[in-house]
Amino acid sequence: TWSAVPAGPPDPILGVTEAFKADKDSRKINLGVGAYRDEHGKPYVLSSVKKAEESLTAAQPDKEYLPITGLPGFTQNAAKLAYGAESKPLVENSIAVTQSISGTGALRIGGAFLGRFYPHAKAIYLPVPSWGNHTPIFRDSGLENAPEKSIVLLHACAHNPTGVDPTQEQWREISDILKEKKLFPFFDMAYQGFASGSTSRDAFAVRHFVSEGHQIALSQSFAKNMGLYGERVGAFSLTTVDPEEKARVDSQLKIVIRPMYSNPPVHGARIANTILSSPELYAQWESEVKGMADRIISMREKLYDTLVGLQTPGQWGHIKSQIGMFSFTGLTQPQTKALADKAHIYMTADGRISMAGLNSSNIEYFAESVSKAVKG
Ligand code: PMP
């Protein structure tokens, strides 16, 4: 039956982890996947998450299905986190929001909804470069890459893979241009809090566009900022003009979602909601997000200093000026290949590294290996 099925290529990002796992060298480093690691290189479960889970365990909630659009408290709190408590459409109850299977699921729901109901274009502009999964997500949603009157996908903060974000001034300009050309902004916010350490500062672009009167689509992920990767917690929302329009949009979101996966998983949304609705856990969470962001910044400084100290040819200032989890190093494909083959260091072929994979035990070995690879 499947004799005609061709073997597909490995995923360009998750394939890096497979190569890493197969390497038996003790010095090996995985800088491919965008998952935070603590200073010992270990996966990190936030204390606020542990506390939320403890209180959930004590409460012994049932395992009933959630509604199609997810846990209502969670989606309201997620919208509040992104848009801000004072946001006009939020206060006026005109944001249609649904829980999603993390950020990927939110993008996919958004793609499906826009493909069905955005009558003006069947096209979406993606940044070049962008997160590798954006192209297949929107291709599978029936949206094409085409020249004009399009939906524009914007990374709300901590652009992946470059780590280069527009300044607030540049965001204002981008907002004006989109308005002038009547383009539709679709924000992908996968790293709120990770860019600056402040969740509200990182929401600047989203909030500015909304305050300027743009209708927006928004994908949110709680994978990175709450460390809830495998729990798959996210939200997709659309701002609408009034509660009546919101209700119509809500009804169609349900119709889009029901045949895709019926309803979302409950546990991770409960964790996120427990944190977002408890002032104490919220404060602790914010300081933990800042802690992760700060550790990454300190690794940027250390890496820069070491590369420069080793008189590595080239300019390395971007390592420090880039923002968020990733650094777009500028390493070439042959250099990244040499690093994998000779130094057991794994990153995506475009030279992107997850800064979170570096720590005080491996950063010198990494910098020395990079320096060697660049010197040839
Ligand atoms: N958008 C961007 C830009 C990302 O970097 C990621 C995660 N790598 C996502 C969306 C979605 O990730 P998830 O589905 O794990 O939330």
Word description of this protein:
Its cofactor is pyridoxal 5'-phosphate. InterPro entries: Aminotransferase_I/II_large, Asp_trans, NHTrfase_class1_PyrdxlP-BS, PyrdxlP-dep_Trfase, PyrdxlP-dep_Trfase_major, PyrdxlP-dep_Trfase_small. One of its GO terms (molecular function) is pyridoxal phosphate binding. The protein has 376 residues and is an alpha/beta fold. The chain has two domains: 14-44 and 293-370, Aspartate Aminotransferase, domain 1 (Alpha-Beta Complex), CATH 3.90.1150.10; 65-277, Type I PLP-dependent aspartate aminotransferase-like (Major domain) (Aspartate Aminotransferase, domain 2, 3-Layer(aba) Sandwich). 47% of the residues lie in helices and 11% in strands. It is built from 15 helices and ten strands. The longest helix is centred in the C-terminal third of the chain and has 31 residues, at 279-309. 45% of the residues are buried. It binds 4'-deoxy-4'-aminopyridoxal-5'-phosphate (PMP). The site of 4'-deoxy-4'-aminopyridoxal-5'-phosphate (PMP) has 12 residues, from α5.
Structure in a nutshell:
This protein is of the alpha/beta class and 376 residues long.
List the helices and strands and how they pair.
Layout: H1 14-22, E1 29-30, H2 47-59, H3 72-83, H4 88-91, E2 95-101, H5 102-117, E3 124-125, H6 134-140, E4 151-155, H7 168-180, E5 184-189, H8 199-202, H9 204-211, E6 217-221, E7 233-239, H10 243-261, H11 267-277, H12 279-309, H13 317-321, E8 326-328, H14 333-343, E9 345-346, E10 352-354, H15 363-375
Parallel strand pairs: 1-9, 3-4, 4-5, 5-6
Antiparallel strand pairs: 2-7, 6-7, 8-10
The structure holds 4'-deoxy-4'-aminopyridoxal-5'-phosphate (PMP).
Cofactor: pyridoxal 5'-phosphate
GO molecular function, one term: L-aspartate:2-oxoglutarate aminotransferase activity
Organism: Phellinidium pouzarii
